[in-house]
Amino acid sequence: MTTTASHLPDILKRHDAQLLKDWVKEQLSVSRPEVTSESTLREHAHRFLGLLRDAVQSGDLSDVTGSAWAGVREMLDELSHARAASGSTPSETATFVLSLKQPLFARLRQEVGRDADALADEVWRVTLLLDKLALYTTEVYLKGREELIHRQQYEMLELSTPVVQLWDGVLALPLIGTLDSARTQVVMESLLHRIVETGAAIAIIDITGVPTVDTLVAQHLLKTVAAARLMGADCIISGIRPQIAQTIVHLGVELSSVITKATLADAFKIALQKTGATIGKGAGH
Amino acid sequence: MESIPILRTSEFLLVTIQVDMHDRLAMALQEDLTDQIVRYHSRGVLIDISSLEVVDSFIGRMIGNIAAMSRVLDAETVVVGMRPAVAITLVELGLSLPGVRTALNVDKGMDLLRTSLHGTPNGGS
């Protein structure tokens, strides 16, 4: 791309102050004042121009992934995160970089104005460069978003699989939502760890909150039951709704190896019986 | 050659697996254990695998085999102390050890054996 030496490093060096002033003015005209204040904008612009100047002098204009551009990339990372946190849209963040075009092009025209070919070359080069940097801010923004989504997904997994202790040696696992393999894994792990912690002999898996039970979900349930059994705990499956009972039979799912109960209360009664505890109304009744 | 120690408590045999199992060791264990069950007229065997961190289908099968052999000699086998990760692995491997009794720790395993032999967890006559 760089057939002749670009005027860009030279311009950035000589017209530093003027560029900054024009650029900030340009940005203030398009940005919402409630999102970024003028002082932070000016500070960001100043830092970016400084880093850009250094990078342009030492690095290749057509490749912003090189080591010479590390400083600029780092600054854009930071800027993109800060802007995302303060509620800017990705296009507003990209505009931060793109709005540098106008003041820069004006300077370029002054410098190489007489030669139309050279001017077109310069403009093209600078456009490519700034576009790449603007795209980079968007990429960073998206990456941040994706990380957030992943983290939330994980937190939801953790939140939606509580293991509660009902009685000495009796655990309950109220399942809510569909059971896929990833969730089964988390459910299984948390149940088994709680069994170790509490020394529970019985675990009640309540599926009242599971909307549908197909063969896959049933298989996941049976896996969990088998794993708990290997740890020395018996499982009771409760909360089976009439429709689900019908579906299970129609699908031919074999649940006969597990104790099943219609409600959590029934399951709890059996669990108490098995652990040798009794619970009843007081003598006053 | 290294071997897995078999401890004799008052009425049961206790096997603690602490090293990586391989074929020869497993064969030796099966031989030792069956010998001892016969010699001491043991009615129960506890296999403690609490220090086992890695299992494969081979170990799963071996445990199943030991349980089956003991049953033939009228001794009940209880596998105790399985770690959560090990339990999940065995289930994923499709080895849920049917016919093997399990307990959380050695204490509970002893209670289980006593209950099934005497009807109470406290020994009895």
CATH class identity of chain B: Alpha Beta
> Stretches of chain A where pLDDT falls below 50 for ≥5 residues?
none
Helix count of chain A, per DSSP? 11
Number of distinct helices of chain B: 4
User: What is the number of domains of chain A?
Assistant: 2
Low-pLDDT stretches of chain B are none
What is the global morphology of chain A? rod-shaped
Average pLDDT metric of chain A: 85
CATH topology of the largest domain in chain A: Globin-like
Largest interface: A-B, 18 and 19 residues
Helical residue percent band of chain A: 55-70%
CATH domain class of the largest domain in chain A: Mainly Alpha
Order of helices and strands of chain B: EEHEHEHEH
CATH architecture of chain B: 2-Layer Sandwich
Average pLDDT of chain B works out at: 87
CATH H level, superfamily name of chain B: STAS domain
The biggest beta sheet of chain A is recorded as: 5 strands, mixed
User: What oligomeric state best describes the polypeptide chains here?
Assistant: heterodimer
Total number of beta strands of chain A: 5
Describe the 3D structure.
The complex is a heterodimer of chains A (285) and B (125). Chain A has 285 residues and is of the alpha/beta class. Chain A folds into two domains: 8-157, Globin-like; 164-275, STAS domain (Transcription Regulator spoIIAA, 2-Layer Sandwich). Chain A has helices at residues 8-14, 16-30, 38-58, 70-86, 90-98, 101-112, 116-159, 181-198, 215-230, 242-251, 264-275; strands spanning 164-167, 170-176, 202-209, 234-238, 259-260. The longest helix of chain A has 44 residues, at 116-159. Chain B is of the alpha/beta class. Chain B has a single domain (6-118), classed as STAS domain (Transcription Regulator spoIIAA, 2-Layer Sandwich), CATH 3.30.750.24. Helices cover 45% and strands 17% of the residues of chain B. Chain B has four helices and five strands, in the order ββαβαβαβα. Chain B has helices spanning 23-40, 57-72, 84-92, 106-118; strands spanning 6-8, 12-16, 44-48, 76-80, 101-103. Chain B has a five-stranded mixed β-sheet. In chain B, β2, α1 (23-40) and β3 form a beta-alpha-beta unit. Chain B starts with 5 loop residues before the first strand and ends in a 7-residue tail after the last helix. At the A-B interface, α8 and α9 of A face α3 of B.
